[in-house]
Amino acid sequence: MTANVVHEPEKLLTPSEVAAIFRVDPKTVTRWAKVGKLSSIRTLGGHRRFREAEVQALLAEAEEQPTP
Question: Which of 23, 24, 27, 57 has its CA 20 to 30 A from that of 63?
């Protein structure tokens, strides 16, 4: 018997949504993607999208670091 497994597509965020989470400018998020701090996916139209799970992991990592 074959099980029909339906996988939900992973949630992708726009640079503006990521910027709102980190309270930074969307251009900063684009810079992070360029330097490899955060990986991005390109849409067919050339726009960047970010995996929500990776963004949440980066946020958790940033919250763990003590501020000087």
Answer: 27
Contacts of 38 (CB under 8 A, 6+ apart): 18, 29, 32, 50, 54, 55, 58
**Gap between the Cα atoms of 54 and 37, Å rounded:** 10
Query: Closest Cα to residue 62, out of 31, 33, 37?
Result: 37
Output DSSP code: residue 29.
H
CA nearest 55: which of 6, 5, 20, 25? 20
pLDDT in tens, 14-64: 999 999 999 999 999 999 999 999 999 999 999 999 999 999 999 998 888
CA–CA dist 55, 49 (Å, integer):
11
